[in-house]
Specification:
Mean pLDDT: 79
Number of strands: 7
Strand order of the largest sheet: 3-2-5
Shape: elongated
Distance between the termini: 59 Å
Radius of gyration: 28 Å
Helix content: 55-70%
CATH class of the largest domain: Mainly Alpha
Low-confidence stretches: 1-38, 274-283
Number of domains: 3
Largest sheet: 3 strands, antiparallel
């Protein structure tokens, strides 16, 4: 292609397509000259181009990691090797790798090659949680959708727990409720035991994804309406309802367990309405 070196005394940025690097030059004479690897781009175009290149590199690395040779703990090719493989510059590779690290796909340590991360359900859900919290904060309607989803999920987990519970499960959950009752004056600890109780119900299923989702949804709601469970007078009803859910699970009654959980969550939701009367029909 041909490039005009612009106008007298104008400072212009040049972008090297292959190296993905930028330099600044002062141009004095408007002379047309042939260039192969150099083009002139605006500041906005530079950012877009770098983002697009890094996104493309990330997709290619993800595709590469699907190959059998890249299991958990295996080192990835070096930065230089990835630059050569994808014909891009170092900034694009680094940005792509940083993005993959945030996603929990790779582990990066100073002075070492990046490695394929050990798969983690909790880490995956935590990555998703950032987006979920933003979604809830953006609209009260989204909060209502989350509460509806939690109703269905928690009722299903209680019903499943009633079918699959063991003596050890019942003993562990009994200890959790007893511990929660003993710390009614410690709001932070009370809330922690409340979370543990709901996660324990999901854990009985034997499916780690259920357990991680139970804790995640509890956390999203806690962040959105932190004062709900801490309202004066809400501790005793919470304990009574947990014991009712536990009794139905221990009795092996799926329908009653789901019913008790529905009552528990409905009462918690009514506390929210009373705590936020100005929200009206938006909640």
């Amino acid at each position: 292609m041909y490039f005009c070196n612009a106008f007298n005394q104008d400072s212009c940025k040049f972008w090297d397509v292959k190296s993905d690097l930028c330099t600044v030059g002062v141009l004095r004479n408007p002379v047309w000259e042939p260039y192969t690897d150099w083009i002139v781009v605006s500041e906005t175009d530079q950012k877009k181009r770098r983002t697009n290149i890094a996104y493309s590199v990330r997709k290619k690395i993800l595709a590469m990691l699907e190959e059998d040779q890249f299991g958990p703990g295996v080192a990835l090719p070096s930065e230089r090797e990835l630059m050569a493989k994808f014909d891009v510059g170092r900034p694009a590779v680094r940005e792509a790798m940083q993005s993959l690290q945030v996603m929990g796909v790779v582990e990066i340590r100073h002075g070492e090659r990046a490695k394929v991360a050990e798969p983690s359900i909790d880490r995956t859900i935590e990555h998703f949680s950032c987006t979920m919290r933003h979604l809830i904060a953006a609209s009260s309607v989204n909060l209502e959708h989350l509460k509806t989803a939690r109703f269905a999920f928690e009722k299903a987990m209680a019903s499943e727990a009633a079918r699959m519970r063991t003596t050890a499960d019942i003993e562990r959950m009994t200890r959790l409720v007893d511990a929660q009752e003993a710390c009614k004056c410690d709001h932070a600890l009370f809330l922690a035991h409340d979370r543990d109780f709901h996660r324990a119900i999901a854990t009985i299923s034997g499916n780690p994804i259920y357990a991680a989702l139970a804790e995640a949804m509890f956390g999203w709601l806690r962040d959105a309406q932190i004062n709900v469970i801490l309202l004066p007078g809400s501790e005793d009803p919470t304990i009574d309802e947990h014991r009712a859910v536990l009794a139905a699970i221990e009795a092996g009654d799926p329908k009653q367990a789901a019913k008790a959980m529905d009552h528990h969550l409905t009462r918690a939701n009514s506390f929210y309405h009373r705590a936020h009367p100005t929200m009206g029909d938006d909640i």
